[in-house]
Fold this sequence. Notes:
The protein has 637 residues and is α+β, with helices and mostly antiparallel strands. It folds into 2 domains: 6-118 and 426-636, Chloramphenicol Acetyltransferase, CATH 3.30.559.10; 130-169 and 179-419, Chloramphenicol Acetyltransferase (2-Layer Sandwich), CATH 3.30.559.70. Helix content is 41%, strand content 15%. It contains 20 helices and 21 strands. The protein has an 8-stranded mixed sheet with strand order 14-10-9-11-12-13-4-19, with helices on both faces. Strands 15-21-20-18-16-17 form a 6-stranded mixed sheet. Helix 7 crosses helix 12. The longest helix is centred in the first third of the chain and has 23 residues, at 143-165. It is globular, with a radius of gyration of 25 Å. It binds coenzyme A and ligand HC5. Ligand HC5 binds next to helix 12, strand 16 and strand 18.
Amino acid sequence: MWGICSRTMVKVGMAKPCGLVKPCHLVKPVSVTRVSGRYLTHQKGLPALPIPPLQQTCERYISALEPIVEVDELKNTKELLDEFQKAGGVGERLQRGLEKRASGTDNWLSQWWVQVAYLTYRLPVVVHSSPGLVLPRMNFRDKQGQIRFAAKLIAGVLDFKTMIDNETLPVEYLGGKPLCMNQYYELLSSCRIPGLKQDSVVNHAKSPRPPKHITVVHNFQFFVLDVYNSDGTPLTSNQLCVQLERICSSSLQTNMEPIGILTTQHRDQWGKAYLNLIKDKTNKRSVSAIQRSIFTLCLDGAMPRGSEEMRRSTAAVQMLHGGGSQWNSGNRWFDKTLQFIVGEEGMCGAIYEHAPAEGPPIVALIDHVVDYTGKPETTRCPMVPLPMPQKLPFNMTPEIKKDIEEAKHDMNILAEDLDMRVTVFGHFGKNVPKSHKMSPDAFIQIALQLAYYRMHQRCCATYESASLRMFRLGRTDTIRSASNASAAFVKAFDDLNKQNTEKVDLMGKAVAAHRSYTNMAISGQAIDRHLLGLKLQAVEENVSMPKVFTDPAYAKALHYCLSTSQVPSKADCVMCFGPVVSNGYGVCYNPMENHINFAVSSFNACEETNAARMAQAVESALLDMRTLLEQTPRAKL
Ligand code: COA
Ligand code: HC5
């Protein structure tokens, strides 16, 4: 990966693996989360997330509103902002409060963010929060093929875990700057716990005796599988194969209660059902074994057969929600931070609970696993008998059964409602924008703006994830892709009265504006997290809520009809997530050199939106933008 830092291009991504260019701050093989090792030195060396100047945020907020709100709304917001930021006003007070908070914490935002974006968000994690990932397709001839691949996959994750445990993970870079590596230490041995009003996350990697087992689920039945030999070495894939076979042959019944489906529920409801479930000591122990496990492996049953065209979309659905209660939705524990899914016929992937980490660390882990599964096994299998994997027992009561029935019902409605379309845009990838000296990500985002405008005849508030990992414990901020420049371009594009040279000029400006917003966002100078911080500071200080935050324009700005994210990977993967509003789209894309993988989602209940049509519109927009560039004599960009 490459990124742009100011005007120089610099390498982004993993530094060379250890042994080549070993990052000096991550060499000592001690467990990061338990010992204050060099990892902490690396972390301490990272800059703190800045708080942008108040006036800068107010100005940029107005520009961001211009393409998405009405003129009179904008006028009103301007007045509210003048009041908010005037000398001695509430804005200044909140800004000072934030600065004080920043001086007393590692990151003024990260804890708030996890609370607001995840733990107090009460819609089901399924579809509404947890992203899915589809691996390049495998071909399994039979159950044995499925098991063999699953064993290799587990071994690959354990290999990655060794790097985490030994602190030999290469530090990543973005724009030449080292990134915060904390999220890697949150991926394994952790789990979300439902609560009545808000959830929490536990991370057992940090406990004095970190877990040595994973959980495997097959035919809705959960098993504990110890993945380390008594000498501390990880089980080889041959050993894992034997253990998975034993698991499969002791879970042949297909009529079991899908206890895992409870985790698909609305969080308040699951919070209640959870308390009821763990009233029973056996159930409590079983749930705790899942929560403590390093990760969960889901050995899936069949999925509905669809056309070849829909194969990738069905795979995305399998990863995202399992297809409904009659298919694989019960073959999961959706609260688990990391679940790998190995399908019957070779569709494989993962789903992760989003609270502890962003996509890129997950993708780095998965890229490692894909590499690993492609290599022959080199470790000799120790000839020691292995203990039988233990099935986790659950005692059913009529109340639990009722909760399961309700969860099945609600999950099926959600599964029916999700419209998912995966497409491979095969005409070009990053190569074409690069050859026109444009940022590929910005080019794709402007194509998304054009596609949306053509379908809905308006611009909408658009979210793109920007990494804040240049800062200690940084998560994300928002790149607002709908800008004045993008609006001017999309409105001109199909206007017969406009000359091509003017359109190319507008395209160049729109792409450049996007890249400039990106640079601003990754350097901590975007507006969204700052505005959120000011709002939360008002709550914290118990001052009456400033009108800028109750303003309809603010609600409009946060109503993201386009919620997007670029998640690049080395392997030819597709990542996917659901829309964040009822009349919106979720668009995840993985731009490769010569093609781009897209997953577009929407809700069937919404008349206006349609995932397949949007995917088609994106394809046309990309092609039309290329044609315009190729047919137009080079304008001054
Ligand atoms: N001319 C030629 N090439 C250019 C160029 C230009 N004007 N601008 C960029 N490029 C090249 C880059 O050098 C890079 O090359 P590479 O393919 O060799 O690596 C490539 O184009 C990609 O750059 P660009 O498309 O501009 O995007 P990026 O890699 O800088 O990514 C973001 C932009 C916003 C996606 C990134 O900054 C980010 O924040 N990523 C994290 C997102 C995230 O966390 N998502 C998941 C959330 S859970
Ligand atoms: C496997 C890749 C998943 C990408 C997930 C992602 O982009 O999540 C966004 C997180 C953030 O804070 O921006 C949220 N989003 C899905 C709503 C864009």
